[in-house]
């Protein structure tokens, strides 16, 4: 016999694990001291969410970006998104791993969609304002900025799955009857 489809009981462990990866990615993006933006090969200018540095070789002069209102907004939105993500992770762990509480899944999905919207706003404000106020040539958005987008994409996917999972309550709980596509009669 041939069985095809999603192994829904595994979602009970995979979704909280994916949220844990999103938390790690978000922490990396927020805590990075460099890596959001750099000029060609980071020779004379690079910036993170918190500061920008200019110079050559070992002589770098760093200046905080937190004096700029848009940078404060980006930092606040990213941190708020991370807090919402951590809350969603805790609720998902309780709802899926400790006990199966299907009624919490749409709440988790809603929290994740809210966090996605907040972080997308932050991840769009940063390059727009950076290019308006600091831009001095060719810049590359690098690894830490990419981790921010990676966390946001993971949250979006998990949010959609959490919103859809209540339809498959029997499958997630392991109580569904196995459906076979082909059986030799």
UniProtKB/TrEMBL annotation:
Keywords: Cell junction, Membrane, Transmembrane, Transmembrane helix. The chain crosses the membrane at residues 12-32, 73-97, 104-126, 138-165. It is a multi-pass membrane protein. It comes from the Eukaryota. Pfam families: PMP22_Claudin. InterPro entries: P53_induced, PMP22/EMP/MP20/Claudin. GO terms for cellular component: cell-cell junction; membrane. The keyword Membrane applies. It is found in: Cell junction; Membrane. One of its GO terms (biological process) is cell-cell adhesion. Belongs to the TMEM47 family. PANTHER family: P53 APOPTOSIS EFFECTOR RELATED TO PMP-22, P53-INDUCED PROTEIN RELATED. This is P53 apoptosis effector related to PMP-22. The lineage of its organism: Eukaryota, Metazoa, Chordata, Craniata, Vertebrata.
